[in-house]
Amino acid sequence: MISTIDMTREQIESLLESALRFKSGDDVSKPLAGKSVALVFFNPSLRTRASMQVGIYELGGNAVVLEPGGTSWTLEHREGAVMDSDKTEHVAEFVRVLERYCVAIGVRTFAALKDWQEERTDPVLNAFAKYATVPIINLESATHHPCQSLADMLTIREKLGAGRKRVVLTWAWHPKPLPMAVPNSFALAAAQMGHDLVIAHPSGYELDEELIETLGANVEITNDIDTAFEGADVIYAKSWGSKQFYGNTDQDVATRAQYRSKWIVDEEKMSRTNDAIFMHCLPVRRNVIVTDGVIDSPASVVIDEAENRLHVQKAILARLLGG
Ligand code: CP
């Protein structure tokens, strides 16, 4: 489960239906009874960690949480590395040992925003996938966050029904550059679900070109945040770093400064939508990405969105491991 890219719309719909059965209590099955799932966190987390642990428990299983460099050894992922520096264990052994205990391995490994060409290939997550014979579940990598995007699609379905919607993914100012995993996966899943997708960002903050090509023709890309909000059913805010400034944080910070007052989701912009719902994956910086007036308004669905992580991930775990 690296991304949704190989999933058909029917497969996504089926997963969302399964998530809804878990949420309603119609499905109380325990397909993980007697099984353990490893959750490997290279980076901090609230929602992903808590919802995976709770979800595995509710499915009858046991979660083994590991933090390389903290509660487990520091990890090297590069093939052929001469490990004479700070890394103690190689992913090759880490994965092969762990899968003797666990039926799947979830991995969170953010982009370091240092080398775009390397990081866009997701080297750490793919090292896990290379050595594993059990399923690898992406808990947010350098390029994708499929558990988040599937929860997002479930939330849109619940709030607005099953039809095609005008879904706006808008860049927002943030004091520092952030990875692109969430916007990549949200854009991909929204396109896969047949929504009319608008991606709004300042010039220079384009998403990965290959990813954009996979979205098909039903996507509009604009540098005009005002027109983007017109008639929107969904406003999905997220900040991300510029590809051209990977490895040069100071230049990104200096460049984005001009967008601070304009690229924020506020009441005035929301008033020009079609009574849109407001979405964000969280954590979110209040009055930076979105004003208090919007995130505290009835339009905001961010807490339901976070809850849906639990139900979608149970559906994913049951699908991958329930057989
Ligand atoms: N949205 C999300 O993945 O949240 P965490 O980083 O807290 O897991």
Q: In whole angstroms, how far apart are the ends?
A: 16 Å
Q: Classify the helix fraction into a percent range.
A: 25-40%
* String of helices and strands: HEHEEEHEHHEHEHEHEHEHHEHH
Rg is: 20 Å
- Uncertain runs are none
Give the averaged pLDDT, no decimals: 97
Please identify the oligomeric state.
single chain
Structural class: alpha/beta
Strand order of the largest sheet: 9-8-7-10-11
**Total strand count, please?**
11
Percent strand equals 5-15%
Give the number of helices: 13
| Major pleated sheet | 5 strands, parallel
Architecture blueprint of SSEs:
Blueprint: H1 9-24, E1 36-41, H2 47-58, E2 62-66, E3 75-76, E4 89-90, H3 91-98, E5 104-108, H4 116-119, H5 123-131, E6 136-138, H6 146-160, E7 166-171, H7 181-192, E8 196-200, H8 209-214, E9 219-222, H9 225-229, E10 234-238, H10 249-256, H11 267-270, E11 277-279, H12 292-295, H13 302-321
Parallel strand pairs: 1-2, 1-5, 3-4, 5-6, 7-8, 7-10, 8-9, 10-11
Bound molecules: phosphoric acid mono(formamide)ester.
